[in-house]
Structure formats: structure tokens, C-alpha cells
Amino acid sequence: MWPHQPYLIFAALTGGVDAISRPSLNPLGAQNASSLKADIPSYDPSFTDQSPPYSGCLVDRTDSKVFCNSGSEDECKKALDGDNSTYWRSRDKKTSHVITVDLGRPAYHVSAVAMLPPQCEDAQGLITQHKIFLSEDGNNWGDPVSYGMWPEEGRLKLSTFEPKSARYVRLVADTRGTNQSWVGVSELSIYATPYTIPQNPSLGAWGPTLDLPIVPVSVANEASGKIAFWSSWAQDLYFSTPGGQTAMSRWDPTGGHISSRVVTDTHHDMFCPGTSIDGTGMLVVTGGNDAEQTSLYDAVEDKWIPGPPMRMRRGYQSSVTVSDGRVFVIGGSWSGGSSRSKDGEIYDPKTRSWTKLPGAKVDPMLTDDTEGRWRADNHGWLFGWKNLSVFQAGPSKAMNWYYVGGNGTVTPAGPRIGDEDSMSGSAVMFDALAGKILTLGGSPDYEMSHATNNARLITIGEPCETPQVEVAGQNGRGMHYKRVFHSAVVLPDGTVFIAGGQTFGLAFNEENVQLTPELYFPHNNSFIQLQTNNLIRVYHSWSILLPDATVLNGGGGLCGNCTANHYDAQIFTPPYLLDSKGDRRPRPKIISVSGKKLHVGQEGWIRTDSDVSSASFIRLGSTTHTVNTDQRRIPLSLKKVSQHKYHFTIPSEPGITIPGFWMLFVLNADGTPSVAKTVLIAVGNGSDHGPYDHEDIGSDSHKPTWQSWKPALIEQFGQWFGY
Questions:
Q1: Which member of 297, 539, 576, 646 is catalytic?
Q2: Parallel, antiparallel or unpaired: strands 146-149 and 205-211
Q3: Domains in the chain, ordered, with CATH?
Q4: What is the pLDDT of residues 120-149, one digit of tens each?
Q5: Does residue 168 carry a catalytic annotation?
Q6: How far apart are the C-alpha atoms of 176 and 257, rounded to whole Å?
Q7: Which residues form the F5/8 type C domain (predicted)?
Q8: Alpha helices in 202-304 (DSSP H)
């Protein structure tokens, strides 16, 4: 691992900028900068409110040259003059404005660009929508190494990305669709690493980086393929909250557009919440800084709707969607007080009401945290299962079965054998049909605690039965690396991607970090190391699967004036999408599906453009603080009925096929997945489930509500898909 040395300088920064005239660098009729005398710069980037470039060294600008495609005489050179009281100003025009820097010599491993906007009182000329390109020769630019939306404010902006050999750096700023009629740059600072990271396509690939206007702590899939992010009452800060609002961003992976707004509709600071996508496909966000609030996100309308307050105030709780589409929540003593046990309650989408479950006791799932109860009931690993049951796999070493009918019950499920309390670890249901769960890492205490590389394979069967627990990893070794505050995602082929974390858990600290991800293979119970990256992901980071079968890995921080804030995410392309040269493999395509709304137990069909050999459903996810109770994978058996047409059957058990939106993938014989089609899976007739067949469970006074909310759901679904 390389040391964290962001402030090293390659050479004395003198600010010298020379005029250049290169046709290959002047495709838009760029105006060249005039020569500047070398001077001592008065501006040196200071990263006081965001994470500095990892191992980044400020590139000496003595030999640098700069030019722009837009601006008045001699303006362009001001972006590199070392004086933050001057700035380059573009023309007043709604278009793309380009500024390009020639670093003067090849072989820099460029890893970041810092941009200081004009330090004007009227907040004009701010660059928000942008792209950054690198080139070795000034002719071939390729795809952007980072793009997105910077916050619309006058502070220092930063884009970090994987180190790449380059001599030329280009910033493209777009004023179309923004509040700015012109853009400006006071200082453009470029960083490089003293090393390169060898690239091996068989291990996957990182990039591009997605720059965001907030520090994203929570994230959720939408049925459209868009991604919703949110932070807290402020874009970079969770404490000192006035309450009542949340900074949000939204990204469309197809077009790349990013939007930003502050949500006040639900009067809810949604930091440290429970997150679940209910059986209707609605995102349910509970508690957090505003500890009793519930917010419902209708992604069809891009609208937040006030939900009913919970019966108990909570923060850092977990929630999970159960077999009839309702949402169960338990724990959460981080906010709302810790003197009372935060026992379970359940949300019904039909009545939009919460019901206490006094028998669903939280005490059996507490960890033995040195800081006590306010940490001990956090971030439960919950899995909705058969007959209104919920399996709690961790983070406590004691596992439990919860039943959410009637007044609720809890039944011990035994220890996670050979493991310890594993707070801020991860748990993923990678094969719901077989009841397979993988648990990964964590630490005995929330903070000031050493992480483990422990991995366990848990197989659950019928509710209240003792699960089978095995050590995951060949020869009982677990993961290659010890991790806490990491994240994990199940992929369409059933493998599990693990990224980020650190070996010693300490919030808002970026030491002892893990930069090499891993991949778990169920077929031989092994972990392999993947492509190392250069962006830190620790406390408040996350990963989520995208519809194109890549992974978005991002976030970290949210601590105000601290050096752990990450306003970004990074795309990881798994090896199954790449050939030996790093180019994209040919991938199958789903032409059509038997329906955009299917039912558990139903037979469906898929038409593809080529032969495929397997398929899988993966439920849309929502995640924060290492927890994603929504994601799970169901492998599908395909029966070929004609050329490129296949039949499949959805499992008839709604505890396996939890109602809601799912991504449907097909894979060819090489294991290359398609882009997903999103379908809604609903509970059909005859799937009502009552109490367990156990004397200690009690009677079920709650009858499943799915049928009674079907009309509203069908109407919503029709709006979304244009029915």
C-alpha cells in the first residue's frame, strides 16, 4: 500500500505559462495564452473539506502551457498564474467551454484535477456540469476519466480518478442547462502519483469517476435505471442539523445527466436511516437525524411523499421488506435515545401505517459493543424469508429468526460459528433459491476496533430451523484482506464483489485502507483479488449494482470541514465484461420479456439476440452504512423453446421472490451478462402466508395486504411503463 502523501511537490511551483500553437490542440479555434514571467504563486490548494488526492503530488507548472477555446485576450493564462485573485473567464454563451493544459513533458501519472472557481462575491462563473479528459499526444482523448456535476458554490472543486499516463489535461465545462451564462477558472491544479497501477483486464477495470454535488451516504436503484443519492441536511455535513431537509442528487447512467436539489417535502433529515424498497416498488426511508420520520420516494414522479411517523424514534436501524411486501424495522439507538429497547415494528404500504411488534425483541441481536446499547443495535443484517419471517444473520455473533405476524416473535438461530461480533461488516444473499448468504468482515466494536477477514457461508431453510454455517474461503482463510466499513454486491453470475474498507475501524479516518477489491466464487468457495484502485472508500461508503452489470462504488465522509469527504463514485467493470485487451466483450441482449409485470410462480419467456445459457433476477437495492437488505439474487433455469427464445419459472415462494422491482439478466456461455430489463414481481393468488408451524410463534392476526393494494400499484406501474 502506498503512503498517503498528497502534499508532495514534484518541483518548485513557479507558475510559468508559455504561449503555444498546436493545431491538434486547437480544434475549436482556441485562443492561445501569452507568456508569463515566473513568479511565486500566492495560491496553493488546501484540502480542508474533502479528501485530498490519494498519494497525489502537485505537478510543477514551470513548463506548462495553457489555452482555451473561449475568452478574452490573455485571459487563459490566468488559470495557471498561481494567483487566486485572477481568473480566466469564458465568453457569455450557453455552450461547452474548453481549457487544455500541456504539462510540458510526458509520463506523468495524472490522478486528479483541482479547480478553484473565481472568488467573486456574486457566485458567477461557477462550473458545475463538466468532463475531464487525458491524452498522451494531444490528439487522442478517449472517454472522460471523470465527469459529472460539481456543487454550485465557490469552494475548491476536485476530480480524482485512476492514475493514467498523460501529458495533456482537458477540462470541458458546459453551461447549457445551468444557471451560468459564462464560466471561469481562477486556478487549475493537476496532481499525479509517483507510481502507476498495472492494469490487468482479467481482474476488471476502474473508471470513470462520477463527480457528484453531494457527499453521497445513501443510494438506491430506481426502476428506470436511474440512481438516487442523498446525504443529510447539508451536502457535506450530518451533525448540527436543523432538521427537516435532505440534500439529494440523481444520475441517469444512460445519458450521464446529474441533477441536484434539497428535499423539504417530507420535513426529514434522512441521514443514517433505514432503507427498503417495499412490495409496490416505493422506496421507504425511515428515521435517522429526524428520528421518527418516514419518507416515501416515488421514482416515477421523482417525488418525495410524507409517510407516517414510526412508533419509535430510530437512527442506524435496519429495515427489510418481507414476503407480503410490508417493511419490518428493528434497532436504531444511535438517535432517538438509547434508554428503551428499540424492538420491531412494521410498515404497511396499503394503510400507510406503522404497527408495533412488541414480541420482536431487539435484545437477542445486540452486539457486545464497548460503547453500549446506542451502538449495539445498529445496522442489522436482515433477510426477508418465508411465511413472514426475517432471518437476522448479524452483525451480532448470535443469529435470530424474527416473525412479523401478530405481535411478532423472536427465536434464537444459534451462533455464527467461529465468528465474532462483526459491526459494519457486510452480508449478501447471493442465491435466494438455495437460501445462501455470505457474511464478510466487520469488527467487534463500532469504532476503535480491529477488522477481521472472517467470511461465513450461511444456508437457511425453513423458518426457525437452525441454519448451516460454514467458513467461506479455501482452507478456511476467509477473505484476503481484513475489512470494516466496506461494501459488497452480488453480481448476475452469482459471484460477490467486495470493495473498500480499512483494517482498523475509525469513522472519518483514512488510514489503513484497503484498495484491492475481491471477488467470491461460490462454485469453489474461493476469493480472488481484483484490480487495485486509487480512491479510498471507508466510513459511509457503499456499492450498488447498475443495470449494465457494472458496479458503482462511492461515497465516504460527510463530516463538514474534514479531509474524509468524497463527492464522487467510481464505476467498476467486472472481468466478465472485458476481453484480454480490456475492450468490452460482445454481450447478449434481451429483446423482449413476456411481461413487465410478473407474479411469483409464473412461467415467463425471454427473447434474446443470441444464444444464452443462464439467467438471474437481482432485486433493486438501496443501501447505507454497509447495509443493503434489498439486494438478493435468484438463479433461473432456462428452457430453450425456439431460436433465441427461452422459458423460465419464477419461484413460487414470495419469501424467496420478495415482491418489488427486479433486474433480469441473461448470460451467454462465456458468462457475459446482458444489460438488465426491469420487471415488477407481484404476489399472485394462493400465496397468502400465515403463522409458522411452531407452537412458540403465536397466531397471526395480520392478513396479507397485497391484493388490496393491487389497483393502485397497477396504476403506478402503468404510468411508469407507459401503459
A1: 539
A2: parallel
A3: 23-196 (2.60.120.260), 205-577 (2.130.10.80), 590-688 (2.60.40.10)
A4: 877 789 999 999 999 999 999 999 999 999
A5: no
A6: 12
A7: 42-193
A8: none
